[in-house]
């Protein structure tokens, strides 16, 4: 039984809207922290490839992608907790699965849930699209810092 009152879908929609704001804020806060860390610590400047083949830019790219993948995973776990806390799902693992399923699937889901709770699917999808766009922008900024705007490493 859901803790949400199905007759009060406006309250559910407000909860979902606030959840979108919270998850998006969580994501952008951590992206901003990562971006500041990379630029303040000077890691990008020190990773400029030198003459010949240099593994430093590849390692940088792999670490950045791993950190960003972990951030997206945390977003899905956060969505799972947000849905599980008020009783939208009987257990946390189902809620997290639902979040992962909808994060990039345009709100298409194979899980049936109560009517007003259906709005979780497009809300999670919307958050996923926004967060992936921010992630792409941050990665592009990091690689521009690494290689320069023309795509060639500065020596």
Characterization of this structure:
The longest helix is centred in the N-terminal third of the chain and has 32 residues, at 9-40. It contains five helices and no strands. The mean pLDDT is 79. The chain starts with 8 loop residues before the first helix and ends in an 8-residue tail after the last helix. It has helices spanning 9-40, 43-46, 56-84, 92-103, 120-147. Helix 3 runs antiparallel to helix 5 and helix 4 (92-103) packs across helix 5. The chain has one domain (9-147). The protein has 155 residues and is mostly helical.
Q: What keyword list fits this structure?
A:
mainly alpha, 68% helix, 155 residues
Mean pLDDT: 79
Portion of residues within helices: 55-70%
Low-confidence stretches: none
List the domain count as a whole number.
Answer: 1
How far is it from the N-terminal to the C-terminal residue, by CA?
Answer: 63 Å
Instruction: List the total number of helices.
Output: 5
**Helix-strand sequence:** HHHHH
What is the rounded Rg? 19 Å
Number of strands: 0
In short, what is this structure?
The chain is mostly helical and 155 residues long.
SSE order and pairing:
Blueprint: H1 9-40, H2 43-46, H3 56-84, H4 92-103, H5 120-147
């Amino acid at each position: 039984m859901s803790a949400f009152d199905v007759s009060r879908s406006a309250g559910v929609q407000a909860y979902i809207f606030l959840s979108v704001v919270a998850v998006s804020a969580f994501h952008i806060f951590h992206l901003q922290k990562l971006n500041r860390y990379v630029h303040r610590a000077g890691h990008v400047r020190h990773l400029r490839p030198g003459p010949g083949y240099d593994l430093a830019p590849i390692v940088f790219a792999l670490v950045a992608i791993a950190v960003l993948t972990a951030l997206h995973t945390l977003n899905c776990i956060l969505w799972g907790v947000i849905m599980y806390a008020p009783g939208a799902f009987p257990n946390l693992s189902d809620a997290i699965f639902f979040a992962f399923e909808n994060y990039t699937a345009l709100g298409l889901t194979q899980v049936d849930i109560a009517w007003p709770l259906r709005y979780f699917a497009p809300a999670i999808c919307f958050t996923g699209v926004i967060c992936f766009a921010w992630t792409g922008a941050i990665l592009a900024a990091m690689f521009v810092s690494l290689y320069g705007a023309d795509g060639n490493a500065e020596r």
